[in-house]
Each structure stands twice: as C-alpha cells, then as structure tokens.
C-alpha cells in the first residue's frame, strides 16, 4: 500500500539534499527543498563515485545523465610519492570487477553530478525548490515541524524535515549538540583545469585516465580526468605543522610547496597546476547513533561527516537518500520511516567514517611504516577486491525503493 503523501522539507541543496528530495518525491511525497545560497551549485572540483554510488544514482533515475559526462577510469593506482614507484592498483575493467560489482566506478565533476540531480528535481512535479532560504532553527510538535529562516518571517510547516545542511549543520548542532566538527590538521588544495594544460606533465598511468593516488609522508596527491576527459582534477592534501584552531594562517601555499618539495618528478611536475585559490581544512566527526529527533532526520555530511580518504562522503549521502526514499515508501508515519532509515544506514556509515581515518593514516605513513605498507600492498593482485568490496557494496536493504 502506498502511504498517504506527506509534506517533507529538505534543508540543503547539496548532493545529499537534492538526492533526498528526489528519492522522497519518487516515494510519493511532496517535497520543499530550501537552500541558503542564492543559486544552487557545487565547487569546481572532481568527485569519485564508487559502484555503490552508481547503484544509488541508478535507483534515483539519474545514472544515465551522470554517465554522459563522467569518466569510467580503467584503474585505481597507488604510487609512492617519493620514489615514483607503483605500490598497488585495482583493475576496474577486469572480469573480477564485473563479477563482483554490478555498477561502474566513475569520476565526475561535482557540478555535473549536482546539475544532473538538480535537473531531475526541477522536472519532478512534486518538488519545490527555494534558494536564498537560510534555516535558523526548527520547532516541532506532535504533528509538524516549523522551519524558520534568516531572510523572511514566513515559516515553512512540514510533516517532517530532512536535515542535509552539511558538515556545519545548524540543525544537527541544535539536536545533537556534539560541538564543532573535528579538524584533522590536514588541508586540501584542489580544482579541475583544462586537460590540455597537463600535457607533458602526466605519468604514463595518469595519461591512460587512471585514478592516481600518490601517497607520501603526511601528504598525498590525487589525480583523475573528469567531464569526458576535457578537464583534469587534482587534489593535494597535507598535514600542517602550524595548525591553530581559531585562524586560517595554517596549511598555507608555502607549506604545500615545502611538503611536496621532496616528491618524485611526476608529482613535482603536477604541483604548479594545483589550484591555489582556496584551501579546504579537512574535518570529520565521531559516529553518532541519534540521527533522528522526532520528525527531523539527519542525512549526508550532517549525519556522518567523514575524512575523504575512502572517497565515500557523497557516495554515502547517495546511499542515505535511497534508503530514506525506500523507508518513506513503506511507512505512513514519518517517525517510523525515519527510524527505519536510520537503522538501515547508521552502522554502515559509521564503519566507513571510522575506516576513512584509518586509510588516511595508511596513505600518510612515513619511513619504515611506508616501506612495510608498500611491501604488503605489493603482494595484492589488481583483480583482488576483497579489501574494498564491503565499502563499494551497499547493504541489500539500501535498494528498497518501492
Ligand atoms: P554539502 O555538500 O555540504 O551541502 C550542504 C548544503 O546545505 C549546501 O548547499 C549549503 O549551502 C546548505 N546549507 C547549509 N546550511 C544551511 C541552512 N542553515 N539553511 C539552508 N541551507 C543550508 N565524497 C565522495 O563520495 N567521493 C569523493 O571523491 C570525495 N572527495 C572529497 C574530497 C575532498 C577534498 C573533500 C573535502 C570531500 C570529498 N568528498 C568526497 C566528500 C563529499 O564532498 C561530501 O561528503 C558531500 O559533498 C556532502 O554532501 P552534503 O549534501 O551532505 O553536504
């Protein structure tokens, strides 16, 4: 039986919020999505979408649109950033990959993924999109949630609210109260540039469209093509020795140069073309159990902000959205649907959140630790997916949109 349509408000128009709006509307409900920015958008950098994300995008009906511009890389390759030697690789075109995973590994420009989700939301008759609406707080009673905004005194009344307002979620802060996100003392410099500007600066693997991870002591560089190969994405990440909690004067461009100064030729060739216009301090939080507070549920980075080392933050937000839609398609009471959604998702998201930190530590090993890592990884076969398959495989119940 299809539940009676609810009025659901989604706070935040990032990848998580748009995906949640889409899955909720596809489950038969009316959605109003509010975004604080004057225009919807994403930053000018790339995003890796493991097969669990492709599967979620298919469930949401947007995989075809995303594939028009996304690149399906042949391999993920880990290199030693100091020696320039290959550490290990995963063959994404091997029979072992297709036997194990039903969906492709993709890399995309964030704007392209965001645009595909936004178009699908705009085209859905049950979704209303509002920009320039900053939620200040929410009040709830037994029958509804009232959202209040900075820009207007007109409130929005909804049967239930999905808080997809990101890492610094105001709604999470009010409901969970677990303080500020935890800064890892690492920063990222990142951006996509026209691919032809990289000519002569790419290693052999990089030129074949592989996803490259150059792992080094307390730093790494990630590279891959996006937008049909027309753009090339680079992300340089390092730990700062000058972290101060209340200032932006750490993790500077000068530190970037210094930290990457001793790397191999291929990394140093790429360094001048890494975007410098903005730095991103990297945060996460410890996992929590209480994703649901009455008629308000957390989703995406608002629920489980994680370090990016497993490239799963957005992938998990997409899995959240599919699970949410599935639950809202099964239960009449939003509280029951939210409880089922959180039960399905929080264990897996927490495990990935925790393991993202661990994988970062492995990437950033130095000295003997790095030598042992390289020796251990050297015995891996490129067709061996046992260690990543739990990350790349959504739990079966995630596929439960009705
Ligand atoms: P956000 O993208 O933060 O969206 C939140 C939205 O809410 C924003 O639009 C914001 O304007 C809006 N908002 C905030 N407050 C309010 C308010 N009060 N009222 C109204 N609107 C509000 N993930 C991957 O899966 N693969 C990767 O390869 C990957 N690489 C990464 C690399 C780096 C360097 C970093 C930092 C992250 C990476 N991630 C990756 C993680 C990924 O970017 C995030 O997990 C994902 O974008 C989170 O989406 P979200 O919609 O939950 O939050």
UniProtKB/TrEMBL annotation:
It holds the Pfam family FAD_binding_3. One of its GO terms (molecular function) is salicylate 1-monooxygenase activity. PANTHER family: GERANYLGERANYL DIPHOSPHATE REDUCTASE, MONOOXYGENASE. The keyword Oxidoreductase applies. It is an enzyme of class 1 (oxidoreductase). This is Salicylate hydroxylase. Keywords: FAD, Flavoprotein, Monooxygenase, Oxidoreductase. It comes from Streptomyces clavifer. It comes from the Bacteria. Its cofactor is FAD. Its EC number is 1.14.13.1. InterPro entries: FAD-bd, FAD-dep_Monooxygenase_BioMet, FAD/NAD-bd_sf. Residues 8-354 form the FAD-binding domain.
């Amino acid at each position: 039986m299809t539940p009676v349509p609810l009025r659901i408000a989604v706070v935040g128009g990032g990848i998580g919020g748009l995906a949640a709006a889409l899955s909720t509307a596809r489950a038969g409900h009316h959605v109003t999505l509010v975004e604080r920015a004057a225009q919807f958008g994403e930053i000018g950098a790339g995003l890796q979408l493991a097969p669990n994300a492709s599967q979620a995008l298919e469930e949401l009906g947007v995989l075809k649109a995303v594939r028009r511009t996304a690149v399906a890389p042949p391999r993920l390759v880990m290199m030693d950033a100091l020696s320039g030697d290959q550490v290990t690789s995963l063959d994404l075109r091997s029979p072992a990959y297709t036997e194990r995973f039903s969906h492709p590994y993709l890399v995309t420009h964030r704007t392209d993924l965001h645009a595909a989700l936004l178009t699908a939301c705009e085209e859905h008759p049950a979704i209303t999109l509002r920009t320039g609406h900053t939620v200040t707080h929410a009040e709830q009673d037994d029958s509804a949630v009232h959202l209040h905004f900075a820009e207007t005194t007109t409130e929005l009344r909804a049967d239930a609210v999905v808080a997809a307002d990101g890492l610094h979620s105001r709604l999470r802060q009010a409901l969970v109260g677990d303080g500020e996100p935890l800064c890892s003392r690492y920063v990222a410099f990142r951006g996509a540039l026209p691919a032809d500007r990289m000519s002569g600066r790419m290693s052999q693997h990089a030129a074949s469209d592989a996803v490259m991870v150059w792992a080094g002591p307390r730093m790494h560089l990630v590279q891959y093509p996006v937008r049909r190969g027309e753009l090339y994405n680079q992300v340089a990440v390092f730990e700062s020795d000058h972290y101060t909690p209340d200032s932006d004067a750490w993790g500077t461009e000068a530190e970037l140069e210094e930290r990457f100064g001793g790397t191999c030729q291929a990394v140093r060739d790429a360094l001048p073309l890494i975007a410098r216009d903005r730095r991103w301090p990297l945060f996460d939080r410890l996992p929590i159990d209480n994703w649901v507070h009455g008629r308000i549920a957390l989703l995406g980075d608002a629920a489980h902000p994680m370090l990016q080392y497993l490239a799963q933050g957005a992938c998990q937000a997409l899995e959240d959205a599919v699970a949410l839609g599935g639950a809202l398609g099964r239960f009449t009471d939003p509280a029951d649907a939210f409880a089922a959604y959180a039960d399905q998702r929080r264990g897996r998201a927490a495990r990935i959140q925790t393991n993202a930190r661990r994988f970062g530590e492995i990437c950033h090993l130095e000295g003997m630790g790095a030598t042992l890592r390289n020796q251990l990884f050297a015995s891996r076969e490129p067709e061996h997916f046992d260690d990543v398959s739990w990350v790349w495989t959504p739990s079966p119940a995630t596929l439960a949109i009705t």
